[in-house]
Hints:
Layout: E1 6-16, H1 19-30, E2 33-38, E3 41-45, E4 55-59, E5 63-71, H2 74-86, E6 91-97, E7 105-110, E8 116-121, E9 140-148, H3 151-162, E10 165-171, E11 177-183, E12 191-195, E13 200-207, H4 211-223, E14 228-234, E15 241-246, E16 252-256, E17 270-273, H5 277-280, H6 291-296
Parallel strand pairs: 1-4, 5-8, 9-12, 10-17, 13-16
Antiparallel strand pairs: 1-5, 2-3, 3-4, 6-7, 7-8, 9-13, 10-11, 11-12, 14-15, 15-16
Amino acid sequence: MTERLVxxxxxxxxxxxxxxxxxxxxxxxxxxxxxxxxxxxSYFAAEGSSEPFILRLRDDEKRIDLVGFAVEGxxxxxALADKLRAEDVQFVHEPQELDGFSxxxxxxxxxxxxxxxxxxxxxxxxxxxxxxxxxxxxAKLSHVVFNSANLxxxxxxxxxxxxxxxxxxxxxxxxxxxxHFMRCNATHHSLAIAQxxxxxxxxxxxEMRGIEEWMRGAGKxxxxxxxxxxxxxxxxxxxxxxxYFLSPAGNTIEYTTELAVxxxxxxxxxxxxxxxxxxxxxxxxxxxxxxxxxxxxFNDIDKGLFVAPPV
Length: 311
């Protein structure tokens, strides 16, 4: 089994031009808890997660600010930083005490496409609680998906530098790769990368307690007036349920549950043909994936590449 220095996904941070509207949506409808706020900056936690926050919103031009991953301890932080430095990865800042909300110790780098990644340890955690039966709120952040104009190059960066592994791939009928599902632990994927027309956010996925809570959550979001762009259904890759919506800022966000946990010693990646409907949705309850649906998640070109966010 691969020994990795990155332990798990912590949070996603987005900048949005309609900050107050997006902030209200995630707290009022999506089911996250605002745990800290400053001028033009808001941090949201999931009640089922001990992470101090899983989503950060910032008032600015639309972009991915950064994605945060956890590392077990300071020795591992320095080992990872030394590795990345030796591999000529571009740093935003070196390992240091982090002075933002929840603190910790860590560093930031640009990935191969120019997105900012943070690796941290020693941050303050919060007390998680069990999500109640039929409570339609997220338990945690499940995964982050990027669009890339060069899928192979983008995915290889995470393999080479962070020791991520490909769990499964979606392919076209002619065998061309369309999407890689990537893991940093036994969970099927905490990161996925899709072939798109440009670099951008594809979607953020939030895990629910179970099927009942997932369905009730989807109904709640539909009643809020948000548009479901795909679902409800059940993917083949990862075996997880899906219901995709558009946030007020035009970002795709997903409710999911039951994402597969793998035996990494025995798992072999699958290459799944996107034209086989059961590979898109095992249940057949969601509309068949089409170019129109796919286009919804191409999103706006990320203008934050190789530009560090101010916080």
